[in-house]
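Chapter review: from sequence to fold.
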Amino acid sequence: MEKLVLELEGLDCPNCAEKINQRVSKLVEVSESNLDFISKRLTILADSSTVLDDVKRIVGEIEPAVEVKPFVRNSNPQVHKSRTKEILEIAVSLVLFVLAFIFNTGVFNIVFSLLAFLVSGYGVIISAVRNLIKGEAFDETLLMTIASIGALCIGDVKEGAAVMIFFRVGELFQDIAVERSRKSITSLLSLKSETVNIRVGNEIKEIETEQVKIGDIMVVRVGERVAVDGIIVSGCTSFDSSALTGEAIPVEAQEGSEILSGSVNLTSVVEIRATKKYSDSTIAKILEMVENASEKKAKAEKFITKFARVYTPLVVAAAILVVLIPSIITGFSQFSTWLYRGLLFLVISCPCALVISVPLGFFAGIGAASRKGILIKGAKNIESLSKLKAVAFDKTGTLTEGKFKVTDIIPADDIDKDYILKICAYAESMSTHPIARSIVERYGKPVDSEVLSEIAEVAGRGVKAKINGHEVLCGTRKLLEQNSVKAEFKYDDSTCVYIAIDRRYSGAILLGDSVKSGSEKAVKTLQSKGISTTLLTGDKNQTAIKTAKELGIDNVCSELLPADKVSKIEELISGYDNGCVGFVGDGINDAPVIARADVGFAMGGLGSDIAIEAADVVLMNDDPISIPTSVSISKKTMRIVRENIVFAIGVKLLVMILGAIGLANMWVAVFADVGVSIIAVLNSLRAMIIKR
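The token string follows.
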């Protein structure tokens, strides 16, 4: 089975897009098909080499002007097209229509009205005839043509012209609105560097981003984006990573700093050693997540797809009944009146407002989230986020920094606190363990290696060393007991280093994993939204309770293995039948529970690739406060989607009722079609507006 991604250049009709998708999905060789109207991208899973020819044939039959070509990611998407001819036709037809009003009666009135109709509608009529020949009975252009010609036939020449003119005007504004929305959303994807400068010996060579190999030295000048993830090997500067993390404050970086692709160099030239290929880099994963967002459709989108398939036939059937039933009952003397009212139904029979605005609303919400450094994988997950009732957190690296820091130094009664820190820092100076590094960092002074000898690490227990001839033990209770050191061991081994000098207990250094600055606010904000919080951690119970109390978390489950976390999440899920449960984690061991949760969150900066792959939502800034932000964005997006559905269906039904009883004319019907579409599209774009 092969995945084929195609771009349908020039696709402007949402109704036609749905027809193309339906026809392609029915091909024998196609197992799955998804056409995203917003990005004009058709993704199919097929097992035949001839499927491309079949797709081109289907597209040619429905939309001959649309070009089918392989999708190529473009860092600067161009969605603008010339509308000069279209605008000119509308302008000429409007002038002719005004002249028809000036010559309100007589031959000139009819002539100018007919000319206005033909100038504005000849393209629509040609398209309608072509689609009728191909069997597209419910095509929008055909229905609009029948409605306007019907108006001409019953003597409303000027109104028939008005219907066609304002249909064209509405379509123009609708296309412009959709095009601008595409520009607004696709601009979020303009993060990729097409080329990169590589140092080869003493020369600088420009190559394509996809050609960068691990180990290549990239020369990044001021104003340039980092092409692939890497580590600075020369120079220091500051980077703007707001497009990735949503954080506007520049990040200072020097030799040894890890830099994510997509970051912009702000102050000076640096050289960065590539640590990943482009396809594995942060920016490539972001682009892939956003571009594939439409493949995971929400229930609302699926409803609209099904609704659109039956809506037009039902309205056309209703139009026929409105014409025939009253005419049969009251006599055919009033046939023209009921024909006119039936024609109103045809004008509003296209479900474009829904077909465009609902997926556009979801896409805008996903785009808004990505600007805040939150990557939501598909509309389905926006819907789940909006129903979140409980969130469970991993602790280390999620709510805490995942870095040990010295919190207290407790010497024996006759020993100086600074001396204990110095002795321990010397003993730990050759170790790469995070606890050792944190002690050396707290000491903050150069270590005289000449006074050190016989350094040995005892796996899982600590370090033995000689300092100026004195034997020093730094580590767990078991290390000291093993060496016959007697003391009152009252601290937790996981957060304490015991020290003995010459087999005599000399003190303890306590360590802790500091809480992230946004963790407490994230927990409280979630709780204010009615979302309960739970801590699921493998840490000791005492440590877990302390962290939960500090942050105000509702429930605590400690000393859990990965399988235990999955069981706990399943318990939570079973307790919320009408809501969703989320889990936030960062490590490889969190991947199973992230995948099992209704909404899995992964830390994108520090998190493992496996956790990010399993997640439904990726937090690029590693900040827990992004969780309630994602909930707010999803709730707003769902509210806008529901508004569009209710507004579009409501207005169309109202106009149909008013038309059936004679209180609405063609002008109102045109508004119910294209006017509602424009308003719904503009309303969808509100999902992109985020309160700072």
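Two observations follow directly from the output. The radius of gyration is 33 Å. The chain has 22 helices and 26 strands.
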